[in-house]
Amino acid sequence: MGNEVSTSGDVYSYGILVLEMFTAKRPTHSMFIDGMTLHNFAKTALAEQVESIVDPTLLQQTEQGAASSSINSGQSQSFARSHKIREILISIFNVGIVCSEELPRDRPAMNEVLTRLHVCKKSLLRDGRRIR
């Protein structure tokens, strides 16, 4: 945005990259008009509609993995798995959103971002294996 190069700018770029990867939308997408941005799009939909903003191919891959890993899994396991995936997606989107805050002072330091991502990773891993 015409400012000096800074670690705060790098954090912003990282946040936008995370949002791009998980929504499959670029900040220049035609839907972002009249003040709507990728950051606002993710922030608005996060709480109640995280599944609606996630790149559908990411969800398809998780569903295929779940189907192939256990054919006889019960509905409670399936619900727990989808609930866990939803929680992780919300955590990852939160990282992207907080990193892409407009004001540099509102963005976390990169070591805090790393800590948040490690929490996501630990949550994703259960008993040494990934949730499928």
TrEMBL record:
Name of this chain's protein = Uncharacterized protein
Q: Which organism is it from?
A: Rhododendron molle (Chinese azalea)
